[in-house]
Amino acid sequence: MKSSNLLFIAVFLFFLQYVHAQNLTLSREDLIAITSKWKGERFPDGRPKVSDNILERMKKISLEQAWSVLRGEGYTHQYEEHWKNIHAGETLVGRVLTAQYMPLRSEVRELLEKKGEKEGRIGDMVSWPIDMLSKGDVYVADSYGKVDNGPIIGDNLGTSIAAKSGNGVVINGTVRDLEGLAAIPGFTSFIRGSHPSYQQEMMLTGINIPVRIGAVTVLPGDIVLGKLDGVIFIPPHLAEKVVKTGELVLLRDRFGHQRLREGKYTPGQIDRRWTNDIEKDFSMWLKANMSALPVPKEEIQELLKTRTW
Predict the structure, then answer these.
(1) Taking the model in full, what pTM does it have?
(2) Which of 38, 150, 169, 264 satisfies CB 3.0 to 4.6 Å to 48 for a cystine?
(3) Are residues 280 and 198 in the same domain?
(4) Are strands 92-103 and 202-207 parallel, antiparallel or unpaired?
């Protein structure tokens, strides 16, 4: 027997042993271990629970601002592009709940279905992650780009997802009933495409486990920020820093653009490190426009406390 065949058999037997030994989800202890940099609140299963306040403020942050913060913190593979946004131009923000799909191996799927039955899961595998969603979650699934017989949701499951999470999905694959999905209010979703078929010859191999979405390793509890045709996945312990840094950039950009339109400063003055006089002008502008700016008033007040002019 060829060595390549022996290797395949060994790997497959190892996978079967893994399926026998493991639940579909990571244990609470394992989830905490792989997200140990997060020190805040968690869901009962151990998934990080970034606050609703941070999620709401995240909607105003640009992909570029988030990318810059993550890059500076050493996270260089968090962005994935070339998506189709079901609600073009709208923003998606939420806490990640992951699902991983693989091509069907009937003996493996049988084991997984028995495992799911023992865990009290109901219906077809494709609905199991959806049953676990909470408000503010985003269902992030890797269905490995499968097109024909690849859609893992249609408008029925989409309606359930929207009702449970108040959000849409990120699916590294296809959906069906695109017209119906697009009609669901708030169902801003990022997909690779659509197809009139439905999922066949596939199996769900994990929920709330690390998954690969394009070039990104996505963990349960990460924060999704999706805009236009791009999606960035933010580790939960960096979500607040992304928001606060992005808000400061947003304020400085708004001030700079206004002063450029007024002709008070030249592009060369604004597009470099500001002088003390411009910084003082910025502080006065913040105080005068505090109630009209797209950043919480209390955050601007806190920002002004750190300034010496």
Answers:
(1) 0.88
(2) 38
(3) no
(4) antiparallel
Q: Domain end: 211, 234, 257, which one?
A: 234
Say how many domains are in the chain.
Answer: 2
Q: CA angle, 100 as apex, 208 and 127 as ends, to 5°?
A: 80
For 223-273, write each residue's pLDDT tens digit.
999 999 999 999 999 999 999 999 999 999 999 999 999 999 999 999 999
Chain segment 97-139, per-residue pLDDT in tens: 999 999 999 999 999 999 999 999 999 999 999 999 999 999 9
3-class secondary structure, 295: coil
Residues 140 and 163 in one domain: yes
Residue in this structure with the two tokens 């694959």, named with its chain if needed: 173
Q: How far apart are CA 113 and CA 149, in angstroms?
A: 20
The dihedral region occupied by 263, where left means phi > 0, alpha psi between -120 and 50, and beta the remainder, is: left
Cα angle at 164 between 159 and 167, to 5 degrees? 75
Q: 69 and 97: one domain?
A: yes
* E strand or H helix that includes residue 227: strand 223-227
Residue 112's domain comprises 25-234
